[in-house]
Amino acid sequence: MFAFGLKLSTSVASQMSYIRLHFQTDPTLKEALLAMLSELPFEAFEEVYDGWLTGMDMASYDQNLKAQLVDLQQIIPFLLQETTVAKKNWNELWAQNFKPIRIGDLVTVRAPFHEKTNDASHEIVIEPQMAFGTGHHETTQLMIRQMSCLHFESKAVLDYGAGTGILAILAEKMGAGSICALEIDEIAVENLRQNIVVNHSSRIQTIHGNLEEVKNQRYDIILVNITRNVILDSLDLLTEVSNEQADLIFSGFLEKDSELITKAMEERGGSLMGSQRKSGWVALLFQLSK
User: 13-94: what fold?
Assistant: First the structure.
């Protein structure tokens, strides 16, 4: 079962192939390898017994990235298996391996072809495509668990890097008054809008773009599940679009990066209010004081 998703970067994705990468290493070096790979432009990883799986569109798998992987092999020995697949086959494989998931008592996530469940407070239906955020990856689960600690009633929410829209959809189900789902990837936006319709969401605005698109808005809760470097580069704008005492949840990075994120937020008036950890990943909850 694939636990990672692919966020495509071009409108001609239907004409492209994708690369599936299997990094194999000594079990004692798996976490160290993951830490190194997380510094490279991969979206997410699935843990397997002998290493990690990830993937990306073929155009992004360029000579520069390949050279970085060669350099990395000098630090941590690993074998790399590359498999090229067509978009059609990849979508079929993704759908076949998409399984329902329950995250605590808060939410279950399923595809339209799965049977409806009633064993959690909320149910989200996700069309299985290649946008990141099906609920299977640890960081999405950690974000959801942190969301359960907040009150969303009538709040203005920003989901930055919305992917499939799972967090934005959950925010509406938890009572948010308005939600902005901001996503820079065109293909992910298409899937996001599809999922909004499937879940009968009515208070989610989708925007294809970056934070500059919402710099004149203000939010009570901000949800960010991206990568460490993108988070750090975005903190000034994220705090600018935050209301007084706004809550911000960050994930998409490893436990080792928690101190770096926390220090950067404290410099901007943020106080760490909570954290969730799973399989080396972490989600941090901050409250901002302006």
Answer: Alpha-Beta Plaits (3.30.70)
